[in-house]
Each structure stands twice: as C-alpha cells, then as structure tokens.
Write a structure and sequence with these properties.
Radius of gyration: 20 Å
Number of strands: 13
Helix content: 40-55%
Strand content: 5-15%
Low-confidence stretches: none
Oligomer: single chain
Order of helices and strands: EHHEHHHHEEHHHHHHEHEEEEHEHEEHHE
C-alpha cells in the first residue's frame, strides 16, 4: 500500500469527476504530442460516430434509451428479470421496494468487473447460458432472489451487513458455479470486496441506516435532496464515502488525522515521478457505474436526478476496446498488445484516460446523427446506446470470444 500525504481539499479534488475529466484531457494532449504508448487518429471520429449511431438505432429504434446501468444486464438472454423482481416486491410500500432494488444493484455491481473468456453461468430453470457481465448479473440476481445476502430468512430480498458477514467463499463460488472447468477471473478479489461491503454497511449508519443495508441510502438521499432533486455528483460522493474503505489498499491519502482509500486512482509517473496529488490519474469507474445504476430506483422513489453529464464515461474494456478496435487510437508498439498489463501500468492508465477523452468527443457527432440534444442524450445514454455495444461487436468480429484488445490482468475489482 502506498501512502500520499495531503489535506481534505486535495481528497475532494481526487474524488471529483471534474478531476477525472481534466486529467484524462492532460493525457489526451500528451498522446497528441507523441508522449504516450498510443497515437490518436481523430480522422476516424466521424466513421466511428456513424457506427455508434447505427448500433444505437438498431438497439433502440425509437431512441427510448435507458441509462447505462446494471438493470439492463438483468434482461440478459431475453428474460425480463426486473419485472420478475417487481412481482416479488408487489404489495410493499414504494420506499421498501426501492430499498430492495438498491440492495440488489449495489451488490451486483460490486460482483461485476470482468469474468474472463471461459466462465459461463447456466440458468437451468430458464435454459439460458450467459457469460461476461450479463452472466455475472444473472448469477448475482439469482443469489439475491434466493436470499443469499440476507441475514433474515423472513426477508430474503435484501442485502445487509450481517448477511454478508455470514457469506462463505464456498457459497459465493457455488452461486457463480465456479469450478476447475468453469473458472471465474478475480474470484478472490470479488469475495473480498463483498465481505468488505458488509463491514462498510455496519460502519456508517448515517448512510446505510440501522439495518446496515445499501437500501439505507434512500433515506440519506431523501434528506440530502433539495426540493426533491439530487445531483449526480452527490450520489457519487455518497458512494465514495460509504464504499471507499472496501477497495483494495493500493493508494491512500493521509490528511494527518484520517487516512482515505483512493480506490480506482493511480500514480502516473509521466505527470510526476514523485508521488503527489498532481501525479494521480483517478477513474472511479465502478463507483460511477454504480451511481448510474442507482438512478432508476431513485427516480422510482420520486427523486429527480440532475447533472448526469457531470459524471464521466466509463473507463472499462468495452469502451476502451472500441477506441482501439476502431482505430481511433493505436499502440505505437503493436507487440505490447500481447503482453500482460496490470491496471496500474502506464499503458493501461493511458488507454483508460484516452477512452474517457474520446467518449467526450464522440458524444456530439453521435447526437447530431440521431437528432438529439445533449440534454436529451447525455453521456450515460451514449454508453448504453451505444459505445459499449459497439466495443463488444467489434471485439466479437476480431478475436475469439470477443476478448479485449489488450491482455488485462484482472483482480475482479477494476475491469
């Protein structure tokens, strides 16, 4: 674990989505000047925008596009599991239904982050077999529906601190159908993350309530809303506060009185060989995706969400794959594609930062082709429409199993 010394203002700076955006722009500028592992080819932008627009229209012909969130994965293999959950929750007050949905989506997002090419989940009752993010979603949905994350047999459709404390690795492995023939990348990291979630739920009753549930966030957000409105960065900051301690201890910021886990933030030596606030590239990918995934339940509770575009795109391997596979960026040394890369390597930090900067640049040409304004078509809908699916489609046509274009070493907590 590496420790950086700073103050609360610097902590807020490193957690802010505006910092993610500005740091990504700095790395983008370095790439244009030849200072990274990648060259940038903006002459490809219009063609890639046309591809994303076409895929968006194919996926959503009426352009009624949902947020890019975990809820879409629960519809994998043509099964509308969200409606099945609604049936189970029917008759409960609205707030109780929403709390249950917040419970589900928080634990499901944390159990995501890439499954590898070999792992598959078979849903015997429906005769479906699904892999990757959708498979992880379906597996976590079924575990939730079976009450595996609840400490109360009378209330199975919840996630609580004691229920996660009781969870054993063998139970989680069985839920994911992990075996020698069906290996799941980063399983140990995933299990550690969900156990740490249980501790975090107990640690902060102001956020998670006396029941120590992710659903406790509803009351917190209702209290924080101004005239019923929340801003997206408020949602992100609450998650960073409540879930910050659960991330693997890679980089901490010590203020003198407290120490904070910075999570998905990485020292990037080209910005400063010595570790400093100025040399950190933050991403906070899972926290931002979780924020997007909370939008729908919070809207169901009657809250209004503003400032969705204050958050950034998601620096993960489908959006990043789109940038590489479409030729928007290219490795200066093609041989590096086959080498194994860890999330903290300079090359992966650059890849992820360029992904964010290019998503921003794709947004306007895609909106123009679809006849949409920025307000009607925020970045979170570009991702869903969109860039995530285009990345998957290109990968499927180029590599067996649709593998990412780079050889990622995953611990189950980043990708």
């Amino acid at each position: 674990m590496t420790e950086l010394r700073g103050n609360r203002e610097e902590l807020e700076f490193l957690l802010a989505p505006s910092t993610i955006r500005s740091c990504a722009e700095t790395i983008f500028s370095r790439s244009l000047e030849g200072g990274t592992h990648f060259s940038v080819h903006l002459d490809r932008l219009e063609e890639v925008a046309a591809l994303v627009s076409a895929i968006t229209l194919r996926n959503y012909p009426t352009l009624d596009i949902p947020f890019h969130s975990r809820w879409n994965h629960f519809r994998a293999a043509g099964v509308d599991r969200n409606s099945l959950l609604d049936v189970r929750l029917a008759g409960l007050p609205v707030d109780e239904r929403v709390k249950s949905k917040l419970d589900l989506v928080v634990v499901s997002v944390l159990l995501d982050a890439g499954a590898g090419q070999e792992w598959k989940y078979r849903e015997a009752a429906r005769g479906t077999t699904t892999g990757r993010s959708e498979g992880l979603a379906v597996a976590s949905w079924n575990m939730f529906m079976e009450g595996r994350f609840s400490s109360d047999p009378e209330r199975p459709l919840q996630v609580d601190g004691q229920g996660l404390a009781n969870l054993e690795a063998t139970n989680l492995a069985a839920g994911f159908q992990v075996s020698a023939a069906n290996p799941l990348e980063g399983f140990e990291g995933r299990f550690a993350l969900v156990k740490a979630l249980g501790e975090a739920l107990v640690r902060d009753p102001e956020l998670f309530g006396e029941e120590a549930r992710p659903g406790g966030l509803l009351a917190y957000f209702q209290g924080a809303a101004i005239k019923g409105q929340l801003r997206a960065p408020q949602i992100l900051r609450a998650l960073q506060r409540g879930l910050g301690p659960i991330w693997p201890g890679r980089l901490n910021l010590a203020t003198g009185t407290e120490t904070f886990n910075l999570g998905d933030a990485w020292h990037y030596p080209p910005l400063g060989r010595d570790l400093s606030v100025a040399s950190i590239m933050p991403f906070h990918k899972l926290s931002q995706w979780m924020s997007y995934s909370l939008f729908e339940p919070l809207l169901e509770a009657g809250l209004e969400i503003a400032g969705a575009d204050d958050l950034t795109g998601l620096a993960e391997y489908r959006n990043g794959g789109l940038m590489l596979d479409s030729g928007l960026i290219k490795l200066r040394d093609g041989a590096l594609a086959a080498a194994a890369h860890r999330p903290g390597s300079e090359l992966i930090i650059e890849w992820r930062a360029l992904t964010l900067a290019l998503l921003e640049r794709l947004a306007d040409p895609v909106r123009a082709k679809l006849g949409k304004t920025a307000e009607a078509f925020p970045l979170v809908k570009l991702l869903e429409g969109g860039t995530w699916w285009a990345g998957r489609e290109l990968a499927s046509g180029l590599r067996p199993g649709g593998a990412p274009p780079l050889n990622l070493v995953s611990d189950g907590t980043v990708f």
